[in-house]
């Protein structure tokens, strides 16, 4: 992409009003703009990152479930059937249509998926199933803040499992646990599963995934032993029930809780020298809630010896919140430092002198070759001072920069800079191309 033709509005000054680094950087680098309290437009740079995060979530969910898409607008009657229309409270945006029918903008989808499943599934042979979708949600948060971290409209991946018994449901839960560890690992962040409350969804088994960050909204209490756990299990099979259970025990067996579930008497059992406190960002949450919705909404399947009420779980990931959380975990004084897996573009090309013919020719040639090789590249071809362009590239955080100017070209070289380490290397254009493809 050529910057001269892009809508990438970078702000010269750090915006006022934003309290934390990720929010500031998302505004300054032009990822999002607020259009109403807690509601954001995603500009091209933000949209590219959001899509990458979403795609990683999708790929890992596809290994355990099947994608579908449910609507954002739901009918109040659906929520009356499950009995939680009145219970949900002011976080729910309630809407009336022209026929005076009560509708709502979905804050979550347990009720809808249970109704859909009930209407089309009759036999125990059709279970187990795991379904997911990635869709916008609305929650009328009392205090939207920190940009997309606590928006009112936000993108969530929510998955739902249906099993014949509790043992099956636990296996579904363990599978999602592994899928989450892999998902966050691929994004370059460490999210620790912590014992959780199940809130208004109600439940029996529940863990939140927290990214450690000094500006996180949750207060954390954990045994230092969690820092030692390697949460990535590349070789593990989703079909190996014993290995999944062992993973669950290891990943959740150590004391790790938020202020919502912290218990002083259990905390006292953690040796003092291993007690850690801190703050974190909730990026995901998994629940096993049994027959709560299936029972309330009359979901039954016929079994070999009579009807069976399926046991369910639900599994959320805050896709848009993750963009903020990743920045919170990965930035420096000059701007964002994207992990390569979610970077909007892998390479940025900067011409130091847009009025120098040889510089422009070399940049055009490299840009064409990188594009042909399928490398996502942002080419700053604007007629701007070199220093301004370099500052913009650092702020936007692309993993690699190729800096081209007359001085280097005289010696036949361009500069390749690694955004994370700051390391610079002088290479011939051919060698630069070889390094980045
Ligand atoms: P929180 O405790 O932050 O209010 P929650 O526990 O209410 O979140 P869940 O119902 O567990 O949220 O939803 C699943 C995921 O959706 C959360 O783990 C979080 O990552 C994300 N999420 C929830 N609320 C918001 C929001 N207002 N803005 C952005 N993401 C959100
Ligand atoms: Mg909430
Ligand atoms: Mg929560
Ligand atoms: Mg939660």
TrEMBL record:
- Per the record's keyword annotation, is Aminoacyl-tRNA synthetase included, yes or no? yes
One cellular-component annotation, GO: cytosol
Catalytic activity from the UniProt record = tRNA(Pro) + L-proline + ATP = L-prolyl-tRNA(Pro) + AMP + diphosphate
Compartments, record wording: Cytoplasm
Q: What is its main location?
A: cytoplasm
Query: Which Pfam families does this one have?
Result: HGTP_anticodon, tRNA-synt_2b
Task: Answer yes or no on keyword Translocase.
Answer: no
Highest taxon listed in the record's lineage:
Bacteria
InterPro entries documented for this protein: aa-tRNA-synt_IIb, aa-tRNA-synth_II, aa-tRNA-synth_II/BPL/LPL, Anticodon-bd, Anticodon-bd_dom_sf, Pro-tRNA-ligase_IIa, Pro-tRNA_synthetase, Prolyl-tRNA_ligase_IIa_type2
Q: Which function does this protein serve?
A: Catalyzes the attachment of proline to tRNA(Pro) in a two-step reaction: proline is first activated by ATP to form Pro-AMP and then transferred to the acceptor end of tRNA(Pro).
The protein's name is Proline--tRNA ligase
Tell me what organism the protein belongs to.
Sphingomicrobium sediminis
Which classification does the entry list for the species?
Bacteria, Pseudomonadati, Pseudomonadota, Alphaproteobacteria, Sphingomonadales
């Amino acid at each position: 992409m050529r910057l001269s033709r892009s809508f990438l509005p970078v702000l010269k000054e750090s915006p006022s009003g934003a309290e934390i680094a990720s929010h500031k950087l998302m505004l300054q680098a032009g990822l999002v703009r607020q259009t109403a309290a807690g509601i954001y437009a995603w500009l091209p740079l933000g949209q590219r990152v959001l899509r990458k995060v979403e795609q990683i979530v999708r790929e890992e969910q596809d290994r355990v479930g099947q994608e579908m898409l449910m609507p954002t607008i739901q009918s109040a009657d659906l929520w009356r059937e499950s009995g939680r229309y009145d219970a949900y409270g002011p976080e729910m945006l309630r809407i009336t249509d022209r026929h005076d029918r009560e509708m709502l903008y979905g804050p979550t989808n347990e009720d809808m998926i249970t109704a859909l499943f009930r209407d089309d599934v009759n036999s125990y042979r059709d279970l187990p199933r795991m379904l997911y979708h990635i869709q916008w949600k609305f929650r009328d948060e009392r205090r939207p803040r920190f940009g997309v971290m606590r928006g009112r409209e936000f993108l969530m991946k929510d998955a739902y499992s249906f099993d014949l018994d509790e043992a099956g449901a636990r296996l579904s839960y363990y599978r999602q646990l592994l899928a989450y560890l892999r998902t966050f690992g691929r994004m370059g962040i460490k999210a620790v599963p912590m014992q959780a409350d199940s809130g208004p969804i109600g439940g029996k088994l529940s863990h939140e995934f927290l990214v450690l960050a000094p500006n996180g909204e949750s207060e954390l209490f954990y045994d230092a032993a969690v820092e030692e756990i390697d949460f990535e299990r590349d070789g593990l099979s989703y079909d190996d029930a014993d290995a999944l259970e062992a993973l669950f025990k290891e990943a959740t067996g150590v004391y790790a809780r938020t202020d919502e579930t912290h218990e002083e008497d259990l905390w006292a059992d953690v040796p003092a020298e291993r007690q850690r406190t801190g703050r974190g960002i909730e990026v995901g949450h998994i629940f096993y809630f049994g027959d709560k919705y299936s029972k309330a909404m009359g979901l039954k399947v016929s079994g070999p010896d009579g009807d069976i009420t399926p046991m369910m779980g639900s599994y959320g990931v805050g896709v848009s919140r993750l963009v903020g959380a990743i920045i919170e975990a990965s930035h420096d004084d000059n701007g964002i430092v994207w992990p390569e897996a979610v970077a909007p573009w892998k390479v940025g090309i900067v011409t130091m002198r847009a009025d120098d013919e040889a510089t422009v020719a070399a940049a055009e040639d490299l840009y064409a070759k990188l594009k042909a090789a399928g490398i996502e590249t942002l080419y700053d071809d604007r007629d701007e001072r070199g220093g301004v362009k370099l500052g913009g590239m650092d702020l936007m955080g692309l993993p690699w920069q190729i800096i081209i100017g007359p001085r280097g070209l005289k010696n036949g070289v361009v500069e390749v800079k690694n955004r994370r380490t700051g390391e610079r290397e002088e290479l011939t254009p051919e060698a630069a191309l070889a390094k980045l493809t």
